[in-house]
Design goal:
Arc Repressor Mutant, subunit A; mainly alpha; homotetramer; DNA-binding; 2 domains; elongated; 11 helices
Chain lengths: ~190, ~190, ~190, ~190
DNA sequence: CATGAATGAGACTTCATTCAT
DNA sequence: CATGAATGAAGTCTCATTCAT
């Protein structure tokens, strides 16, 4: 009731997409799940494709905002660790949204160069942290796009693991281990 | 002509799947691309679903074989590096096959528990290497499934990056960097 | 602003109907073109069908009025020629209206017996002229409905030709030729 | 049974189009009338549009052939009269086909420049007759496209009249009158 | 083994019309 | 009078699959 019909449609679409896949979900079933008429969906979104993209960008920016809600830290390692935990917590609170990101990232139908750009844009604040840490020789001088790709990808994989097996998420060995791999992986080689 | 019609169908399916997505590719278009009649496809595969699964398992085992074709090495690091390079070379030689693995791994329609099992089975020989290295304290004592997940995922991500931007694949900084992240990420924390 | 919304709707409908066809034009697109809301259209017309019929009868009577605005002439040939030119001028000044008449006249959806009646009613004054001329043996004693049909139809065809190829309308050979066919066609056979 | 499914579809489409209009006839209703499945229609025609165009050109050429099946005559007037009667007979034997021609000729959706070209192409043999007759001063030196337009249009109008009121078709005054208007209309002016 | 016409359920989308504001 | 979100029936077209040849 507090929700607009447009939001109801987006919610239902998300739920169905992650369980059945995007293509396997009909617009009729989305409308039904949202308790609106078929036509209503197309009143708010010109096409199924645009509904998917709208969902995608809204989720992407939601993740970006969630990550930045963390206090400023002194040490770079602590700062990055904060981002990391913030992002993981968001994923555990919004498992379907994360699964959707994972799904769409590998669907040729929706895979565009936007993808890379959107990732960089959303994670821009991370880029700065990393550059700075590399400059301070806290991180190894790896190519920046390689690093970003790794961060993005390791995050999605770990988040997905913790969603599929929620008991792991509460064990320190997994929680610390996941971040250790990230930070250690980017650290300078031990001489 | 040296190819059987069945193989022609598999080849055409792979090509179309990675460019348009599995669901967006019709059996009719596969048959057309393979220069066979619609009915012929269903002589060789009982359904589209079975065609997809057949393609999947054949590619998965092809990757497994490709990785094991490497000489035995003394040092664990060298041994793992060999596996890594073998796998990357296979991906660069078979970009469509890698893209297919990536696509199917995140499609809810085909996502089953098999997936995890198949991954472990294919990478079984790696597990042994890692366990041994952990025992020798060359690698950190991280949970084994976390490690496996990381290896599998980092491989797919790097292979995909090198396929999308082939020029990166030839630069030492990217080649070495990708592996450095892997090995370093699993290494024990510096004092 | 000098135009009422109702008139704006009629104008927009006419424009869209002749370019895309009646059925292919949605009420929504008419409203948009007229810069009014969807609902507004249905305040002024109970249905799309009634909008079409309203447009039809208003155009039909407009043509009737246009034709009668001509001075009384002595000779029957001059009188008919006047009607003819008046009607052609109206068509050239209102090309879309003529195209609409042409379109609707052959659409089974709107084709009713009204059509014949309306044509006769509009052209009633012409009937008298023809009857008289036949009586004076200036015209051949052809069946009256055949004659009327011919007049109506030849007019629409010539008007349409001149609208499609406006340069022809200014050439004497076409202007005179078109009327010559009409008058000559109805004349008594030579010797 | 002697009919192929493709022909059954064309026949049903014609029947429904002339009674309800092209747009008002759904592909589903065509298939039903033809006793085939919906998909069958789209197996033979890539779209509804192409079905319409296929029907159009087949009818147009059928009319062309019907007209040419007449013996060679000495006098131009007799020759043209033969064409005229042949064409009218075809129309009376195929009333739906004529109605379809009439309908499509005025539908903005299908109205293309092809139209004019097709008409000229189909009626090419008539053009020659007319040119010759003009040269012999049996016909007035009117612009050729005006003449052709008139012939085409007068034919459709008369044929339609005779179809709508079949009793008229058997009366000499109408039969002769219709042709008299044609020939007389094109004749030189009485000095 | 191979073919391709035929099937019919179901997908996406459109649209005339209504109604609460 | 005017608005535009909402409706749901209906339209065009797709597609995995079958089967007679």
């Amino acid at each position: 009731m507090g929700y607009s019909k447009k939001q109801q449609i987006l919610d239902s679409a998300l739920r169905l997409f992650v369980h059945q896949g995007i293509q396997a979900t009909s617009t009729a079933s989305i409308a039904k799940e949202a308790n609106v008429a078929t036509g209503t969906l197309f009143h708010h979104f010109p096409s199924k494709q645009s509904l998917v993209l709208c969902l995608y960008s809204s989720i992407k920016s939601e993740l970006g905002e969630a990550m930045q809600q963390c206090p400023h830290q002194q040490a770079p390692r602590q700062q990055v660790r904060h981002y990391w935990q913030q992002a993981l917590q968001w994923a555990q609170a919004n498992p379907e949204k994360l699964r959707f990101l994972l799904h769409i990232a590998h669907d040729p139908q929706f895979y565009t160069s936007q993808h890379q750009e959107l990732m960089v844009a959303t994670m821009n604040f991370l880029v700065e942290q990393i550059k700075q840490a590399q400059h301070q020789q806290l991180l190894a001088p790896l190519p920046l796009d390689l690093v970003l790709n790794f961060c993005h990808n390791h995050y999605l994989a770990c988040a997905n693991l913790f969603i599929e097996q929620p008991d792991l998420a509460h064990q320190r060995s997994y929680q610390d281990g996941a971040f250790q791999i990230l930070w250690q992986g980017l650290s300078p080689v031990k001489s």
